[in-house]
Amino acid sequence: MEFALTDEQLALQATARRFAESEIAPAAAHYDQTGEFPREIIRKAWELGLSSTCIPSEYGGVGLSAVESCLITEEIAWGCSGMGTSIMCNDLGLMPIVIAGTNEQKKEWLSACAESFKLVSFCLSEPEAGSDVAGLQLQCEKDGDAYLLQGTKCWITNGGVADLYTVFATLDRASRHGGICAFIVPTSTPGITIGKKEEKMGQRASDTRVIHFDGVRVPAAQRLGQEGEGFKIAMRTLDRTRPPIGALATGIARRALEESLKYARERKAFGFPIGGFQAVQFMLADMAKDIEAARLLTLQSAWMVDRGLRASKHSSIAKCFATDAAMRITTDAVQIFGGNGYTKEYPVEKLMRDAKLMQIYEGTNQIQRLVIARELLKG
Ligand code: COS
Q: How far apart are CA 35 and CA 352, in angstroms?
């Protein structure tokens, strides 16, 4: 077992850390307050090779491993997880093409996203189908050598600002898993309407939308895999993109610990810095041990992805553990800050709001437990 990072990985991590410190963290409160989309910061992340990292080098991308993607994601989330979500959303949107695209599709779509700055969204969730992917209702009806997409997606990250969507639709709802197809759909395709932007509690720098598809004509050449393979493409995508969610959560949690340590050294009560009291020390110690465990689980699941091993159980364990830990840690950070922690003058209330989303998106933590239990019972 080798825990040391290579020189290249250390350099990559340092680049992401510098970017988070100099560009992301100073702007985080502004984008949290206004809910504006930080396009220029996201563009800079792409220029530095910190976004769309899953595009293989043969298609012009940086072709980072899952482990490397986790290393940079933790740093970016330390600065702001809302921007982190927007930055890593491209990998979620592109992963179905990496997994299931033909060489021609990869050449056309991955190369385009490597050559110029583009935003990509993963359109899976629907108003009536979030956890139950096989129950999705957006229809894809055959129309000669094309499909007509009809229906609504929701909770789509970067939905209002994206150039390209990967969209999951069903040929026949009664067939459930067997009816689902995946498509590459440029957002300029006629029939797409961007719906309302969600006013979220946290991660307000990410653009979350409802998207309507009204007779959107998609050539069969833009279908990923065979008809009916869409469900498995979505599941295989999530197996690979859940480790970076663990990394995002680890970044939030690490920031909460760092802020708490600083405060515990400065803030005095009963004449002493509060870090001198065991009640606070135990919270700090619990934070530190959960962060270490979250990082190790995350990197282990990413390591499995990099070796082509089926990582469903480990990806779900990492996502679930790290995001639950981030929720506990940010809540304790607010507790350590006391009344100050509950105000917007200090950074920890934002971390707590941001952490909550981590337990919900990319599969709720209840779904992660379901995946883990099923894998255990399969034996
Ligand atoms: N990789 C490859 N194949 C997989 C797979 C995976 N990770 N997970 C499931 N499959 C296959 C199964 O092997 C099964 O194949 P066969 O029909 O050939 O036997 C098929 O897919 C159906 O699987 P399953 O019966 O487990 O599907 P369910 O509908 O019962 O449940 C859950 C699947 C609940 C786990 C799935 O719907 C899920 O992950 N939901 C959460 C989705 C999510 O994260 N949404 C958030 C929005 S995306 S940002």
A: 17
